[in-house]
Amino acid sequence: YKMKRVLFLFTVLLSILSAKAQKVFSTDSQYQADVKVYVVDSEYQADLLVYKAEKKYEFDVNKNKGVWYFSDNKYDADKKIYFVDGRYQADLLIYFVKNKYRAGWRTKSKQHLMY
Q1: 88-100 pLDDT, tens per residue?
Q2: Which residues touch 89 (CB under 8 Å, ≥6 apart)?
Q3: What pTM was computed for the model?
Q4: To 5 degrees, how large is the angle CA 23–CA 40–CA 25?
């Protein structure tokens, strides 16, 4: 009984940890994408400031907070994105930041795009 309980708690904990990760996949086709993204030149033009997480921090990513892990597999991703050539084509304007603490939403009304 005790072993079953430990196994159950471990399974719940593992699912919570993996649910925190916001994994994105960059697709080559805009028709496969959930969100069309354009990278702006300045953080002040962005809807979302994005920090790109490394593989080893894949499960350290906070869901929908602007910290993204780029997955190699589209089936493993929470969202499929497509980088467009012009900002007028984009659903979401992003700017890549160098520090994780700077990541976050500047335009809260667009948060639903990444849920």
Answers
A1: 999 999 999 999 8
A2: 36, 38
A3: 0.77
A4: 20
